[in-house]
Structure formats: structure tokens, C-alpha cells
Amino acid sequence: MTQKPPLRHVLGAFATGVCVITTCHGDEVIGLTANSFTSVSLDPPLVLWCLDKRCERYDIFAGATTFDINILSSDQRDFSDRFARGDAAIGNHEGLLTLDHPLRLKKVIGWLSCTTYDTRAVGDHLVITGQVEAYDYGAGEGLTFFRGRYGQTHMFG
């Protein structure tokens, strides 16, 4: 009898985009890498993402009333790695954020500014639904994650 692979391996066979969720915490902007982002509804405009209850930044994001979703370009792997590791605070001196939207990272290929619409504990995660208040997109290939490795989107046709 063959042994089943770990569930994590099967779920990792689904390629996802990579984004950094940002929110304010006091006077700081905090970032968190996520690949659990998806669209929910166009009317009203709703999106969701999932936050692991074991995350060291759980209380910050679980209590946030606003957050931004920054969809990373293929050349922003360093952002993904940084905010996955826990180097979460974005200093003003770094110049990573845009001036017009204080939670928006520069050079992302998509961006959504959200207010928290609903939160719901499901299993070992908190599902956070946001109502989109502002958004924009830019050119470039997207950063992807597949079977534990980074990749990028490719346009066909």
C-alpha cells in the first residue's frame, strides 16, 4: 500500500499568486506575505485572504480595520521573503511605500485598499474579508508560488 503524501504537498500543487498584506500598527506599517488571496464578489467589491492563527503578527492583522493587498511582480521575490520571515516593519527611511497611499508598496502589479468587512475563524486560520475601497494595477509578470518554489506568470496569445 502506498502512503499518501502530506496534504500540504497536494495543496501546493495549486499555483498561486503572491501578495503582501500591509496595515498600520501604531506609527508603523507592517507587512505579511500571503498566497491565500482571492476575489469574492464584484458587487459589492469583496476580496479575502487567510491568516494562520499561529502567525506572530496574528493580533495585528486580526484587529486591523483597514489593510492593503499588494500583488507582487516577478522581480519582487525579496519582498515575499522579507515579509514571510518576520521582518515586518516598513521604515519610512526605506522608501518602499507610495506617498499617495501609505499602505501601498511601490512597483507592485496590482493593489487593493480595503476596509475589513468580515472575519471568521475557520479551522486553524482566520478568514478576513475586505471591501475594496480603491485599487489600481500596473504592467509586469506576477510572482507565483508552486510546490514550494517561486515562479512567474507568462502571458499567452
From TrEMBL:
Coiled coil: none annotated. The keyword S-adenosyl-L-methionine does not apply. The keyword Oxidoreductase applies. InterPro entries: Flavin_Rdtase-like_dom, NADH-dep_flavin_reductase, Split_barrel_FMN-bd. Keywords: Oxidoreductase. Residues 11-152 form the Flavin reductase like domain. PANTHER family: FLAVIN REDUCTASE, FMN REDUCTASE (NADH) RUTF. This is Flavin reductase family protein. It comes from Asticcacaulis machinosus.
